[in-house]
Amino acid sequence: MRYDTIYDDILKEIKPSPKNREEIIMLADKLMNIILEHAKTLNIEVTCKLVGSVSKKTSLVNKADIDIFIAFPLDYDEEKLKEYGLHLGKYCIDEVNGKCEKKYASHPYITGHIDGYEVDFVPCYKIKDASQLKSAVDRTILHTNYVQKHLTDKEADEVLLLKKFMTSVNTYGANYKVSGFSGYLCELLILHYHTFENIIKEAANKWHNEFKIDLENYGTCSNYHDPLIVIDPVDPNRNVAAALTMQKFSEFIAACRNYLNNHKIEYFMDKKIEVSKEELINEFKNRNTHCIIISFNVPKRPDDVIYPQVNKTMNALKKISQLNDFKILKSGYYINKDYTSCIILEYEISKLPVLKLHHGPLVKDRKNSQHFLDKYPDAYISNEKWVVLSKREYTTVEDMFNDLIRKENINKLKLGKNIKEEMLNQYSLKTITDYLNDADSEEYPDLYMYLHPSYKLSR
Amino acid sequence: MRYDTIYDDILKEIKPSPKNREEIIMLADKLMNIILEHAKTLNIEVTCKLVGSVSKKTSLVNKADIDIFIAFPLDYDEEKLKEYGLHLGKYCIDEVNGKCEKKYASHPYITGHIDGYEVDFVPCYKIKDASQLKSAVDRTILHTNYVQKHLTDKEADEVLLLKKFMTSVNTYGANYKVSGFSGYLCELLILHYHTFENIIKEAANKWHNEFKIDLENYGTCSNYHDPLIVIDPVDPNRNVAAALTMQKFSEFIAACRNYLNNHKIEYFMDKKIEVSKEELINEFKNRNTHCIIISFNVPKRPDDVIYPQVNKTMNALKKISQLNDFKILKSGYYINKDYTSCIILEYEISKLPVLKLHHGPLVKDRKNSQHFLDKYPDAYISNEKWVVLSKREYTTVEDMFNDLIRKENINKLKLGKNIKEEMLNQYSLKTITDYLNDADSEEYPDLYMYLHPSYKLSR
Questions:
Q1: What is the DSSP code (8-state) at residue B269?
Q2: What pLDDT, on the 0 to 100 scale, is given for residue A2?
């Protein structure tokens, strides 16, 4: 069974018009010509290539950023490459009256805001194959060439369907925040399975941990242990799906099954969350757990810098909780647009007893038995060892965190490096109900997703 | 350094007078003659032997029970042996105007109350060595012969010191309630170490799990994995210390160390417990735990029948608690003289949240994923598997036990067989404070020992 009519309707919505594509191609050609000519006057030997989804006909409507790679010969040293790259980009942007912005990836590049488009000018080395690789961006031109050579126009449309579906069920994007499927990974999946519908069926039924795809039959799959292994056709020593987490891999499988049960067109649309403060408060109250929110500012840095640090901070808070016997039922975090972050920690209980069972040395070990008894005169024997009911350091999580998040103690937590300073500066610890009473309604969707993590996987 | 003066003083208190011993030996001889003569008239071929601590000069004052073993030839069948044994015992008791009582060990025997003594008449087979063993009691005569042959009078006194010390620190007795050191084990320890003082020093410093003693060098120690391994000199295939628990083994070691630090004569006296209701209530309150007592009647049966059943019941209640996430900090039980029993269960907390984390199938398993989702529509993905916050069956231990201790549910607990009926008949579940308000003062020492399990190990 095919659903071509549905897909045709969807493609009408998500595929850029030929006119729009032509406009972008023409703009890119114009910019590349400016660079090439200016480079010639400076005696710099470069080639330019439009890369990215636009160049491969796999860009979704209104998502068409322009990526222009400026390729230098391998004998240029890195300093020169950076310097010439930035200069050529800047020159080009100025020529067309665009606005410059410097950005950083593995090395710095420049972005221009030109005629309503965001155009990245990225310097790289001109390489023939992956063995000549000097930095991660050098691979991009090889990727573009490979997809341009193998992907048919029909298949490019299937990529659009896949990207849109993945976006709607929140599994698209190789950035840290999502840790899902990259655009290039979507293209390779279509090259392997040919149609969107095939991928859905195969993922729903056959995908499992360490599922392997090796388009060029390099035989290098066994080098990897990841949820999904897709060997890069231009580099046998790279798993294109390395950044995909087990979480997003599993969520995609679940979403595929849901979609197979009911081919709703809504799977290609964002699923809105509409929830009121009262509904959220009630849901949390009904869980009857001890749920707290710790909120603090985060530095004004890119998502891929902040998200890992907040995640690391959350894990540190969970670990110290467990060490102190506060059992965690569920946890999560989100970062607001105003650079504040919230870590949600949901505990089984709000208070532990004063005493805890503390295990001591074996009775046969006379020396350590004596030390233990000197320290704990109330120790008693449990089979072959000493135990004692000793006083806990903390009986509530509030006491624990308020004691630990102080200059003297904060190094006992392994926090993200920028987060430590921010938390010492200011943090708030509230029960979820107290927090919700003052919370901005912009946060409601994040809190709703915390309560219903599978919400976006079905329609 | 020796402490002979102390030990002489102690021996004056604990060693039966020669007159007393002579009286017992004469009574035993008289009784054995009656049996032998009566047997002759009946044409039954038997020999008699006084066994037990009296016969070995290792009985403590006022603890001298008389054990007379009636040994039959190996070709008598078991039925005959039982019948003749009971008949001869009964005849003898009647002859001296004693009072009869039938008892059971591995086979039935008869006890007479004669001239203020308790005299056991135990039928057994006359064997030359352990290879001819037909029942456990057959070994007793071999044990008596061995000790009589090897133990000097001086060493017999050392056995008295050891038995008295062990009694005072509550590690003496092979019965289930104590699960400590038997009298025969004490004798073998003295045969190995020669003096009480030596045992104390060696136990304090050198004993460890699987400590081995093999008086006759049989080389069979490695067949056993027990806290202490003492090969029976009359049976290479028996560990005399098999019934000794790790708990009592460790407690004895700890008591030896305490005694070595300070040779107080009080180590040879019972340590009294004097505690008031108010002190007990305060101590429990200060622990701030959730401590309950479940009390019920036990059948009027011997200790070695009841104690294992109550212990099994306690373990069943602990297990079901843990299965339901009620974490136990400490537990214990005791049985009162009026055949009521109390199980103490001390929990970290009194109430669990409504929700608990419930783990489901792997996402890759499509069929079971569907079953799980049908059952729990709110399930969500955690890495490679489904989880859900599902409702707990019980949020308090009171709810749990009151639901389980009902005819419909009680088989979910693995209770001691006689205890099940008793609990269904009647049980009470109270917090320790409520229980203490009505408790008999006879129970205070047991509750005090629960709070201070090491109390008797030091002076």
A1: S
A2: 60
